[in-house]
Design brief:
By secondary structure, this protein is mainly alpha-helical. It has helices at 2-12, 15-27, 37-44, 48-56, 73-76; strands spanning 33-34, 60-62, 68-70.
């Protein structure tokens, strides 16, 4: 199942978006939440458009508070 989810990611987004997704995943807590998305984007040089693409493709869910969560976190980490 894990490999299938990653293959879906490869088919839908660019290599730079995959890089951003992996960095977000590495910095997420045990439940898949990230509270420093903007800082992380600055560190790796990602733009708001890159992040927005992950939201539009439904790989990341963003809350009004600025906190984000990786969708299907438990599937990807089981």
């Amino acid at each position: 199942m894990k490999e299938e989810c990653f293959q879906n990611l490869l088919q839908k987004v660019t290599l730079f978006w995959i890089c951003l997704f992996l960095h977000l995943s590495m910095n997420a807590d045990d439940e898949g939440f990230i509270n420093n998305c903007k800082r992380l984007m600055r560190v790796i040089g990602a733009s708001d458009c890159d992040f927005q693409a992950l939201i539009e493709k439904a790989f990341v869910i963003r809350f009004e508070s600025g906190i984000c969560v990786i969708k299907h976190w438990k599937i990807n980490n089981s």
